[in-house]
Design the sequence.
């Protein structure tokens, strides 16, 4: 074990087991799997590898906790989440160190992720006491109507590796606020932050003498052996997943057997539109923000830079200069702005997309070759003269590569933006208000940033259209995913 990148207070007390019914314990049979630092390739910890038996035990605990948690006062649930928020803020440095250690992102980014995650916890602590119903006289005047909203039941959250604290907070906080116990299956590559977050909740539940099974954690190196039996169990009533469209399809098929409530935040292929009238300084700044968070390993990363012809060359020049000012290195090093990719396979994937693009006629302006040595690094890379049909444009890159594609007219730019089966987020830079409003109607995406390189906010709905998923997280919509309306007539 090498946990030198972690503060001693974190490394010495970090749970590495399974959280079932309020107790951290080994996996049945004692199996473990390693979690590595992607900046060095060294193992940080060995984590318990849950079995099917363990997964069902976690669901057992959630099911037992459901009646009491459902009946808990909204203020009780609110106060618990608010207490977790306060601890998250107080322990920002500890959580950020974990995010950097197992995920690789620079500490400044990790701190920002902790703040972002904490805002979801605070937001849903406030929403827990605002679950309004409805009472009215029926239009026909023959009776009265009442609509109540009650928690759907035990939930399963399957979280990704790229935002290990934000994604668990975005799923767990609304579930607990609504009155739903939840079992979390964290990503194999980043389970440590999930364990830390879950321990904060476990401690608050214990301090308030609340049901311990309200949250469970079942890390595993082989997802199917724990998720499939839980999804097949009729006691589970809600499934939330963030990850690839391919895996999402499989999970939706499994969820259909018991008609589970599902929310799926899946793949993306975000267009970043720059029109000739745009403020290019702002556009480049937004492009760096939209592309380079977590080294491009985010579903909302700008994937295709679609630039109108009169400014395409200048935009590519400026973006190249901006990328060359970025510093690549281990996330704990001072002044590093770009960390490693998550594993060697990710580096190979990005290198393959760049090689194919250059074979198809694209020009490398900066970067373009993996960085050899310890860790999994690929440099910030700008490609221009990129054909619109090369794989780096048609597929999600999930790495620090910015392909620049030029277009002539507004209609052509919109057509290129929509020429994908995905529709999670889109970005557009223009000074023309009328055009901006047209884009909000014409671009096929669940979220649109106008003259902004960042759109996500705890108080706003997060999600996409087409193959980017179903349902929403965040905002008022996020808690609705864990509630069902009950209509009463009298």
Sequence:
């Amino acid at each position: 074990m090498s946990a030198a990148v972690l503060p001693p207070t974190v490394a010495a007390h970090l749970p590495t087991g399974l959280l079932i019914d309020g107790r951290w314990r080994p996996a049945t049979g004692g199996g473990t799997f390693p979690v590595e630092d992607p900046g060095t390739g060294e193992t940080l910890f060995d984590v318990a590898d849950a079995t099917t038996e363990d997964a069902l035990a976690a669901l057992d605990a959630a099911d037992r906790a459901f009646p009491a948690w459902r009946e808990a006062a909204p203020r009780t649930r609110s106060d618990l989440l608010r207490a977790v928020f306060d601890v998250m803020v107080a322990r920002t440095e500890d959580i950020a160190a974990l995010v950097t250690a197992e995920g690789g992102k620079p500490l400044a980014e990790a701190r920002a992720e902790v703040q972002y995650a904490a805002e979801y916890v605070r937001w849903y602590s406030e929403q827990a006491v605002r679950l309004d119903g409805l009472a009215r006289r029926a239009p026909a005047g023959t009776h009265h109507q009442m609509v109540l909203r009650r928690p759907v039941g035990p939930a399963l959250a399957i979280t990704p590796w790229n935002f290990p604290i934000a994604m668990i907070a975005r799923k767990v906080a609304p579930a607990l606020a609504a009155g739903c116990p939840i079992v979390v299956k964290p990503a194999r590559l980043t389970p440590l932050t999930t364990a830390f977050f879950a321990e904060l909740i476990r401690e608050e539940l214990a301090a308030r003498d609340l049901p311990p099974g309200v949250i469970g954690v079942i890390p595993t190196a082989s997802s199917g052996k724990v998720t499939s039996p839980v999804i097949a169990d009729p006691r589970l009533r809600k499934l939330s997943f963030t990850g690839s469209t391919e895996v999402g399809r499989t999970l939706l098929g499994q969820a259909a057997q018991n008609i589970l409530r599902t929310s799926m935040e899946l793949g993306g292929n975000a267009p970043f539109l720059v029109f000739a009238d745009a403020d290019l300084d702002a556009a480049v700044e937004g492009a760096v923000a939209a592309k380079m968070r977590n080294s491009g390993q985010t579903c909302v990363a700008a994937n295709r830079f679609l630039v109108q012809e009169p400014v395409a060359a200048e935009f590519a020049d400026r973006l190249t200069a901006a990328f060359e000012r970025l510093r690549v290195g281990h996330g704990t090093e001072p002044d590093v702005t770009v960390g490693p990719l998550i594993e060697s396979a990710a580096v190979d994937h990005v290198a393959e997309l760049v090689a194919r693009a250059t074979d198809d006629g694209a020009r490398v302006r900066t970067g373009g070759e993996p960085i050899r040595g310890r860790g999994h690094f690929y440099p910030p890379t700008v490609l221009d003269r990129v054909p619109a049909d090369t794989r780096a444009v048609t597929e999600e890159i999930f790495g620090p590569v910015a392909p620049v594609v030029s277009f002539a007219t507004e209609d052509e730019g919109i057509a290129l933006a929509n020429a994908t089966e995905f529709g999670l987020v889109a970005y557009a830079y223009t000074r023309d208000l009328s055009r901006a409003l047209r884009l909000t109607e014409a671009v096929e995406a669940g979220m649109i940033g106008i003259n902004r390189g960042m759109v996500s906010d705890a108080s706003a709905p997060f999600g996409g259209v087409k193959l980017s998923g179903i349902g929403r997280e965040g905002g008022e919509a996020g808690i609705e995913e864990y509630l069902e309306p009950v209509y009463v007539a009298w």
